[in-house]
Amino acid sequence: MIPVSAYLAVSALLFSIGMYGVLARRNAVLILMSIELMLNAVNINLVAFSRYLAPGEFTGLVFAVFVITVAAAEVGLALAIIIRLYRNRATVNVDEIDLLKW
User: Fold this and answer.
1) Which helix (H) or strand (E) holds 87?
2) Sign of the alpha-carbon dihedral angle for 25, 30, 34, 35
3) 99 forms bridges with which residues in the sheet?
4) Has this prediction a pTM greater than 0.85?
5) pLDDT in tens, 23-59
6) Spatial separation of the C-alpha atoms in residues 87 and 97, rounded to whole Å
7) CATH assignment of the domain containing 70
8) Is residue 15 part of a domain?
9) What is the number of other CB atoms lying within 10 angstroms of the CB of residue 57?
């Protein structure tokens, strides 16, 4: 049996990579992918703690499914926004997008 600390280490590594991607990237699509990586790290934590703290219950798994559902809706909305920005500005570089400036 794999200890819970191994799952937490993998989750922390994935979350760190996702955080670096959000902070260092300028492309909106790569930032979106990094956010998804961070959400998957949270899902690993939810499932690992569910498995080790309450093996007979499915609460962690249900929360993980809800997070996946919210992430899917977030991706759909974010991609629609990114496509609209690309059509208006011909770029997905977040530094060059200044639509809300007066």
Assistant:
1) helix 59-89
2) positive
3) none
4) yes
5) 999 999 999 999 999 999 999 999 999 999 998 899 9
6) 12
7) 1.10.287.3510
8) yes
9) 11
